[in-house]
Amino acid sequence: MKRIFEPGAVAVIGVSAEGFGFGRGILLSLKTIGFNGALYPVNPRGGVIDGYVAYRSVEEIPGPIDLGIIAVPAKHVPAAIESCLSKGAAGVEILSSGFSETATSEGIALENEISRLAAKGIRIIGPNCFGVYNPRSGLTLLPGPDLSREPGPVAFISQSGGMTVDFAHIGKWRGIRFSTMVSFGNGVDLRETELLDYFGSDQDTGVIGLYVEGLRDGRSFFDTLKSVSSRKPVIICKGGKTDSGGKAAMSHTASAAGSSEVWNAVMRQCNAVPAADLDGLCDIALAFTSLPPGTYRGVSIIGGGGAIGVAAADAASLMNMKVPEFGDELKASIEPHLPRPGSSARNPVDVANPYVAPSSMKEILLNAARCREVDIQIVVQLLYHYKSLSILMPGAALEDVIPISEFADAFSLAVAETGKPVVLVLPEHKQELEALDIATVTRKARLLYAEKGIPVFGSVEQALYAIHAVSDYYGRLLSRASLTNRS
Amino acid sequence: MKRIFEPGAVAVIGVSAEGFGFGRGILLSLKTIGFNGALYPVNPRGGVIDGYVAYRSVEEIPGPIDLGIIAVPAKHVPAAIESCLSKGAAGVEILSSGFSETATSEGIALENEISRLAAKGIRIIGPNCFGVYNPRSGLTLLPGPDLSREPGPVAFISQSGGMTVDFAHIGKWRGIRFSTMVSFGNGVDLRETELLDYFGSDQDTGVIGLYVEGLRDGRSFFDTLKSVSSRKPVIICKGGKTDSGGKAAMSHTASAAGSSEVWNAVMRQCNAVPAADLDGLCDIALAFTSLPPGTYRGVSIIGGGGAIGVAAADAASLMNMKVPEFGDELKASIEPHLPRPGSSARNPVDVANPYVAPSSMKEILLNAARCREVDIQIVVQLLYHYKSLSILMPGAALEDVIPISEFADAFSLAVAETGKPVVLVLPEHKQELEALDIATVTRKARLLYAEKGIPVFGSVEQALYAIHAVSDYYGRLLSRASLTNRS
Fold first, then answer.
1. pTM above 0.90?
2. In terms of CA atoms, which chain A residue is nearest residue B385?
3. Mean pLDDT for chain B?
4. Does B342 sit within 8 Å of A128, measured CB to CB?
């Protein structure tokens, strides 16, 4: 697998000199991201394409290759695989589609032919996929010219190429870093179970995400899932949970999706972490990579506006999380740090106006953490209100008005002093064309907070959802461990 | 009420010359938004504040006043109301807090005193609120210096000032326009029932939004709700649905929240439209103001990426909406307009790559609409992929690469020719600091689409949720009407 995910030399088979087909798209993506190894485009007409010598065939490539990326029409794919096999490649990824997902006899026959080739000693990713992303080697997805080159703990295994590309791009700005992402499409060879097993043992991977529509071998998948989940969290997003979704899955990756009740029961048994959709997957992955392992049942919520607190308490309650009441002494210790009027030192703490100083915010967090039942703290910052302030009192640029760097320090000090994580919520309520300045500051704040290990979510509900997923996973892990110890 | 919502002269009582208290904040907001009438700040020390002559008392104001905005400390509020009353004001809005929401005997006594003053012939909005927004008159919220001056059909009645301000700002860029927003806070006088009744008969209001934590008189509220809902949709977001949320509501606006089961049952009986949270409220309000009244059961989904289609079909199914299968003839008519390879003409239609030309998109929509079971069409555009294209093929600016204006025309022509609405989904998967250009184009696209009457949502799930709410409301309305006609 290492030769496939971090190849020294790659042949891109099916690169047109013009247009923007899959072949040229992946070649340019690899060039732009700065792939570490050698790149050999293959085009029957030869010549030079985008600065690279193009070879007329795989056989003509002067050196050895580790990976072949195949982007030729479906009917030419078997021949391309055979070339890579004879050239000694460890594997191929097949971007081409036109196989079993078309539900034509021709497509199904071609897919069977590919399957047989895999048995000859070459690993196959795809067909009908967007490839592999590995920040270490610079292997990237179609199209992924500007994905992060910084490696991280999250592996992603996905039947859907689109979801892989979306997750990779979202991860970049949300601060989720990846070890490897594999989009396996129709998955004739390498697919969910084997990849899960691989990343389960991979030292560089601490959290695994998985998008599946259907399973090839349910029994062995669930055995693997159970085993891997006992070592690291596996977040699973399932497509095709309903009849309509199942039909769509069939035409997407030719998957029979299975019943949703059975699925949910098995997920629970395996201690897999379910994610409702891509957004949920991102939120949960961020929470796992930024929160210390542990259970989080009690939460303090610090925000401007009573309705946010009410909504947060409702959301927490629906997830069986607690928003513990603060005692009188605790409230009295918080009150001096709150702006007047309209604030409330109860939990949820209503800071009433959005212009709370970082030093006050730090004191509020330090005090709220003294409540024993508080395991984690959520701060809601409505940064957009600073825009109103800057309109009312013109002069300073928005960035100079909002002390995001001081906030980052305050949050990180509060975490260090209390040992209780702080999670930020930065809703973006102001997104008109004239408010790109507030978008800029929000993005900078997100970066600064992430540098301090503070995750940022879009809403309190999303933050609670992700925290709950983390807590639930470790809670089950601990209770299973204690059962094992006792038996 | 007209004198309160569109006042000719306003006294702002409690304006400091320095700092950024509630009084000065609202004065500056009114000045900046360009309030139509006369503005009289009141400050015991007189002088000139922000360009306005400040009067030592309400009595000293030379002309008559229609509305008093009160921002003095709680204990001085009763005297301020009396002054406005003797000056002949139709009403006051009290931004000050420190009343029953504090749960102190002093605060409760003060609130009772205010209540008694209301009986003397002046209407009171608040206390503990952020005021009234009316685009016609330029009366605005705290802080709301840059809210839209364009009036529209949505009225909003809210116990929460923060939620009112948030909704007003979100509405601006999402294309939701308001007739009047009233944040009534503790609501000693004017509150949910009377305001609902008023906007129920208001010619300028076509859709009403409501945020409540607790009701003063449940029986009369539900009678009014049922009556108004038979004429126009009333979208209700309820805070304090759970025990924890209820406790938070108590300290926010001193409301006893009531049980969630009873609430849901009554909502259904009244044909009120429930919204889960602020985001849901915005989505549903946008759908009501941009879709023709009617039921929408069958949906076509056109997007790039099979997983999006699978997720959409799952979401539709969970809401009892259909993603009807296209017949062979229909699929054959769509296929020539799809890029190759990897696309699928089934519903959901997978356009496979995100660079579909507007002319092709129009043909796909025209053909998909021929399916009788399709009532509405959802298009998912992953505009961020154009960013990859612009990185791979440098030269043109992103805005010149993405034909958003041609897309707007294509969507609007498809609606005009088929009579079936088109709804856009523009997910923002790329939000790093370096991608502000794609944010700019997305915001411009949203404006262009809105001009053509095409609403834009953030995800397929949100679009379906909002469409379903609209369809559900009109479905019940129709079935009740037919029952009435038969009896």
1. yes
2. A143
3. 93
4. yes
Residues of A in contact with B306 (CB under 8 A): 101, 160, 162, 248-249, 251-253
Query: In B18-115, where do the E strands start and end?
Result: 38-42, 48-49, 52-53, 67-70, 91-94
Task: Work out the end-to-end distance of chain A between its first and last CA atoms, rounded to an integer number of angstroms.
Answer: 38
**Whether A162 and B240 lie within 8 Å, measured CB to CB:** no
Helices (H), A147-277: 161-174, 192-201, 218-229, 243-253, 260-270
Please judge whether B73 and A439 are an interchain contact, meaning their C-beta atoms are less than 8 angstroms apart.
no
Tokens encoding B292: 């023709």
A323–B389: do the CB atoms touch at under 8 Å?
Answer: no
Helix (H, G, I), strand (E, B) or coil at B80: helix
The closest CB to that of A436, out of B389, B429, B439, belongs to: B439
Residue A486's pLDDT is: 60
> pLDDT digits over A185-210, tens only?
999 999 999 999 999 999 999 999 99
Is the Cβ pair B240, A309 closer than 8 Å?
A: no
Nearest CA in chain A to B348: A248
**Average pLDDT of span A312-324:** 91
Structure token pair of residue A339: 């702006």
A389 pLDDT more than 90? no
Q: How far apart are CA A96 and CA A116, in angstroms?
A: 18
Q: How do residues B197-244 score in pLDDT, each as one tens digit?
A: 999 999 999 999 999 998 999 899 999 999 999 999 999 999 987 777
- Give ipTM to 2 decimals: 0.93
The answer to whether the CB atoms of B101 and A433 lie below 8 A apart is no
Check: CB of residue A408 under 8 Å from CB of residue A449. yes
- SS3 state at B109: helix
Nearest Cβ partner of B251 from A32, A344, A427? Answer: A344
Give the C-alpha separation, A213 to A258, whole Å.
Answer: 9
Q: Which residue of A has its CA nearest to B382?
A: A166
Span B399-446, pLDDT tens digits: 888 999 999 999 999 999 999 999 999 999 999 999 999 999 999 999
| Interchain proximity B279–A393, CB inside 8 Å | no
What residue ranges of chain B have pLDDT lower than 50? none
Q: What is the mean pLDDT of chain A?
A: 93
CB pairs under 8 A between A and B: 267
Cβ-Cβ contacts under 8 Å for B144 (sequence gap 6 or more): A388, B29, B33, B133, B165, B168, B169
pLDDT of residue A242: 77
Q: Which residues contact A309 (CB under 8 A, 6 or more apart)?
A: A301, A303, A348, A349, A350, B248, B252
Give the model confidence (pLDDT) of A58-90 as tens digits: 999 999 999 999 999 999 999 999 999 999 999
- What are the chain A neighbours of B239 within 8 Å (beta carbons)? 307, 310-311, 314
Helix, strand, or coil here: B32? helix
A10 within 8 A of A38, measured Cβ to Cβ? yes
